[in-house]
Amino acid sequence: MNRARAWADRLLDSPYGLLWLGLLSAAETTLMPVPIELIMVPYMLARPQRLWSVAAVALAGNIVGSLIGYAVGFFLFDTLGQTLLTWLDAQQAYAQFQQTFSDNGFLAIVSIGITPVPFQVALLAAGIAGYSLPLFVAAVGLARGLRYFGLALLVWLLGERALRLWQRHALATGTALLLVIAACLVGMHLLGGE
Questions:
Q1: Do the beta carbons of residue 152 and residue 53 sit within 8 Å?
Q2: What span, in angstroms and rounded, lies between the C-alpha atoms of 155 and 168?
Q3: Is the torsion defined by CA of 127, 131, 136, 137 positive or negative?
Q4: Which of 32, 49, 107, 116 has its CA 20 to 30 A from that of 182?
Q5: pLDDT at residue 74 above 50?
Q6: 159: three-class secondary structure by DSSP
Q7: CA–CA separation, 101 vs 45, rounded Å?
Q8: DSSP state, 116?
Q9: Which residue has the higher pLDDT, 134 or 12?
Q10: DSSP helix/strand/coil, 132
């Protein structure tokens, strides 16, 4: 956490801090399996007047990175996409996600975007399937918007305590949201089957 705090301090002092945050968010979405929240929270705490801007820039960077991941899946999956899955050690997660995605792409993207599962899996699957680009962007925006603006709200309400809560409960919160979404998928399937 000290490294993230030091990085956030450098971002704060830079006139290009928000630009760097957006670039890091795009990189986190495509390549780095390290949550951007580790940089966002200290940034938000140090500059509360930029709280909502930080969430918006992180979301914009995430959407750009998501479009890159979608394009890799759409155009380059057999070469670059397979390499990326191997590098991220996400082959099993990808195989499991493919079935969920074929059943209901939008909710699958939203669910994986909220949880701590590597988001690259959803990006590649959506690109490979040629999933509707407007629906893809909407799902990414909804999932990561909930995550980033929810975090901003938490920091706004709780200040420094938000960081401790996030560290302690990120996995449990993501898992609970995934279970709610799974229950919605099962309910939709059962209602649609009757």
A1: no
A2: 15
A3: positive
A4: 32
A5: yes
A6: coil
A7: 36
A8: S
A9: 134
A10: coil
* 3-state DSSP assignment of residue 16: coil
Residue 156: closest CA among 41, 67, 16:
41
Helices (H) and strands (E) in the chain, counts: 10, 0
Tokens 């709780």: give the residue. 158
Residue 13 phi/psi, 5° resolution? -80, -15
**Cα separation, 136 vs 166, whole angstroms:** 27
In one letter, which amino acid is 141?
G
Q: Residues near 26 by Cβ (< 8 Å), separated by ≥ 6?
A: 61, 62, 64, 65, 68
Which has the higher per-residue pLDDT, 130 or 116? 130
Rounded Cα distance, 183 and 174, in Å: 14
Q: What is the mean pLDDT of residues 148-175?
A: 73
Contact 113, 87 (CB under 8 A): no
Nearest 5 degrees, angle CA 139-CA 91-CA 136? 15
Least confident of 66-80, 81-95, 157-171: 157-171
